[in-house]
Amino acid sequence: MSRDRCGPERPTRDAGGRSGLIARRGSKFREMTISSRAESFDMAAAQYAASRPGYPPAVFDAVEQIAGRRLAGARAADVGAGTGIATAALRDRGAEVIAVEPGAAMAGECRKALPGVPVVRGDGNALPLAGATCDLITYAQSWQWTDPARSVPEALRVLRPAGALAVWWNTTAFDVPWIRAQHERIAGCCEAKPPSAARPDDGDAIRLAGLTGLRVTRRRLPWARVVDLDTHLANLGSRSAFLVLEEARRNTFFAEERRLLRQAFPSGEIQESYVVDLLVAVRP
Ligand SMILES: C[S@@+](CC[C@H](N)C(=O)[O-])C[C@H]1O[C@@H](n2cnc3c(N)ncnc32)[C@H](O)[C@@H]1O
Questions:
Q1: Which residue's CA is minimally distant from atom 17 of ligand 1?
Q2: 41 and 237 in contact (C-beta within 8 Å)?
Q3: Who's near 273: CB < 8 A, 6+ residues apart?
Q4: How confident is the model over 246-258, as pLDDT tens digits?
Q5: How many CB atoms lie within 10 A of CB 193?
Q6: Which of 5, 24, 101, 132 sits CB 3.0–4.6 Å from 81 for a disulfide?
Q7: Is residue 97 helix, strand or coil?
Q8: Domain 34-282 in CATH: superfamily?
Q9: How remote is the CA of residue 103 from the centroid of ligand 1, in Å?
């Protein structure tokens, strides 16, 4: 699973559920808190909008199936909406969606991309939404930046009875050899633990997400996209672990990565493989 420290934005939590660190303890990098990484996206909002992958239709099919209702006509809040990737998909399925995003630049990109969609600045730990107003709350790659001790009660407050909280991540397909090798290089660059191909079982996934005690269903959904080399590298570079990395180290990594990938993919086309890890909690 890609929820490693230097991969996609999924910091570890310590035993107390507090913030994780991106660098190994004792490494020469300063320790980064969840907060500094969570806020880092605003530095690269346009790059994020241009290069990040979306989510396959199967994610939204699964949300409908588990939630037991169609997205068409549902009142939805997409929280940590970023540039609006999941927001757009929800709108295209007919949901009446509002985007909630703390970052000014990310919210700006979202407004630009989705002119008809309301975008409000706000945070999952204190949702700027009235109680019992939503059928669905989604967090696409953003739940990990919240504190579940606050964001779970907030979601339950805002959801209507039988409403659903859906959280998901595009996790890395470590079974693909070049992807695994690349993430070992990333771990080296960030002085993080090498990636583990082991995926948490359902119980661990629910516990790690802070959703213990709720009625949760999990789905894992593999998919892939083909992009050019520049898009692939921009996607990697828009991850929080790189956004907070020292510039010289980041530039060295990306120059070498470009060289290696040009050799491995002379056509210039790269297939990025993902497994969406989806958790849906239905409110009683
Ligand atoms: C990896 S991006 C995901 C953006 C978008 N949902 C997507 O699918 O591309 C994570 C987003 O979470 C936002 N974020 C950070 N802290 C947050 C919090 N406490 N509550 C809600 N969103 C937060 C960031 O500003 C950023 O836009």
A1: 145
A2: no
A3: 173, 176, 179, 222, 223, 224
A4: 999 999 999 999 9
A5: 12
A6: 101
A7: strand
A8: Vaccinia Virus protein VP39 (3.40.50.150)
A9: 8
Ligand 1 pocket mutation, candidates 125, 138, 142, criterion most atoms within 8 A of CB? 142
Give the E-state strand segments of 143-213 in sequence order. Answer: 159-172
Band of the pLDDT at 100, cuts 50, 70, 90? very high
Pairing of strands 215-228, 269-282: antiparallel
The pTM score is 0.89
pLDDT for 26 equals 38
What is the DSSP secondary structure assignment for residue 5, as one 8-state letter? Answer: T
Q: How far is the CA of 22 from the centre of ligand 1 (A)?
A: 17
Q: In the structure encoding, which two tokens stand for residue 175, read together?
A: 């079974």
Q: Which amino acid does the sequence have at 30?
A: R
pLDDT tens digits, one per residue of 12-54? 443 222 222 223 333 333 344 666 888 889 888 999 999 999 9
What residues flank ligand 1, with Cβ below 6 Å?
9, 38, 41, 52, 79-82, 85-86, 101-103, 106, 123-125, 140-142, 145-146
Sketch the domain layout of the chain as residue ranges: 34-282
Say how many Å lie between the CA of residue 265 and the centre of ligand 1.
32
